[in-house]
């Protein structure tokens, strides 16, 4: 019996013969290879030789997942809310009271720290147009981080591979944002009016939505490619689901759509109806 190192490997010596190698996991993990879930594979060791056995495992998905959102009350007031998703129907709860005068246009959750960030639009009543804020996930209270120098901060998304915050600035295009100061740097100039964006799980593709059109952006080549112009509606928010589908909220709808960007189609059985 041995414990794997930080790379997930372990080595030990055995006499020549046939063996069954098994993996015992800590709580919260599941055997994935072999596919029968046994966590065991046969191995044959020859005299003076070596034998390698590959066993797969993965962390179990949490029983529930909390999603943060913001609902526009009027042109400058907004209500933060949470959606808790589990095995049953999702539940919704307001997060604090109405955030008056901030004109919040976008949200993004830091993948490592869990800090929730928000971006404002151009009707902010505190002279903080296109500003970056942090949001208290218990009370909904906003804390000013800094100005991006843009006209509007229409969309936000963290790259999960680099933890860098990306955004879409009205009349400017794609930007990266310093989460300590709010300063924005243009990386792809565009006049598009995009209001939703979400990174793929590997951080190699950024999905960007403008009205009913979905694009993909490759940060390595700095190329923007149109995927489809047939989304369910004018997209107001975009996020990546754990299953790789895109969750999208569209203008004047209480439906949270699930869209497959590879198959280029909506997955209707995975829609979520919001109150």
Automatic annotation (TrEMBL):
Native source organism of the sequence: Kouleothrix aurantiaca
Xref: InterPro entries: Ig-like_fold, WD40/YVTN_repeat-like_dom_sf
Alphabetical list of SUPFAM superfamilies matching this protein: YWTD domain
Domain of life, source organism: Bacteria
Protein name: Prealbumin-like fold domain-containing protein
